Amino acid sequence: MSRRTAPALLLILGLGSLASTGCTHLGPNIGFLAYPIPITTYQQKLKEDKFWNHERYERAPILGPVPSGEEIVALDPPSDDEVMRALEKAQPVQGGVPLLYERNRNNVRIVKEKIADYLDPPRQMPLVGPVQQHHCHYKCTIYYEDVRRVGWPVPHTLRDEDAREVIYIDHNHLHMVGNVDTGKGSPYGP
Predict the structure, then answer these.
(1) How far apart are CA 133 and CA 171, in angstroms?
(2) What is the C-alpha separation between 26 and 19, in angstroms, rounded?
(3) Which of 37-70 are b and which e, b meaning 16 or more Cβ less than 10 Å from the residue's Cβ?
(4) Which residues contact 175 (CB under 8 A, 6 or more apart)?
């Protein structure tokens, strides 16, 4: 190799390796979106909780038609997780500042009572068709020990051993009405 080609070859190799690391913007420039933006753990938890609630509790399933002469029974009662999330939404406990102010719920006991279970008359809903809405209302009483620890100006702990809250949770879902063709056994498809 000659003395003139060696620096040129090193320059080409250096530019090639720099372009392949992703440290330069040789491609399209998308501005500040090219850099990661940090978020707090609080914001991340809010997004995760919102997705969890949407995935588990905010959807209304569409069930098959109700057989004639049969008693209608609602779906499962609310889970303990759903009750505690509803309570946390109504009266938040999460957060606080360690060693300054903290609040906990200890010895939690949940009592669920069905207070209503009824079926609406059939009606036509857009994008769904003829359906009946099934309503089920639950009264959930939460018994717990409320512990509040205050660290400033004078450290002390407040305990309410007989704390209770009442949360009402509605479970609604739809039942199809009439002769429903599910597509099985159709002459036009499998």
Answers:
(1) 10
(2) 7
(3) eeeeeeeeeeeeeeeeeeeeeeeeeeeeebeeee
(4) 62, 63, 64, 65, 66, 119, 131, 132, 133, 134
User: Is 145:160 a contact under the CB 8 Å cutoff?
Assistant: yes
This prediction's pTM: 0.70
Residue 65 · residue 178 · CB < 8 Å: yes
Q: Collapsing DSSP states into helix, strand and coil, what is residue 23?
A: coil
Beta 62-63 vs 156-176: how paired, if at all? parallel
Helical pair 41-56 and 80-90, crossing angle rounded to 10 deg: 130
| 34 DSSP 8-state letter | G
- Identify whether the C-beta of residue 131 lies closer than 8 Å to the C-beta of residue 174: yes
What's the DSSP call for residue 68?
Answer: T
Q: What is the pLDDT of residues 52-94, one digit of tens each?
A: 999 988 887 888 888 777 777 787 899 999 999 999 989 988 7
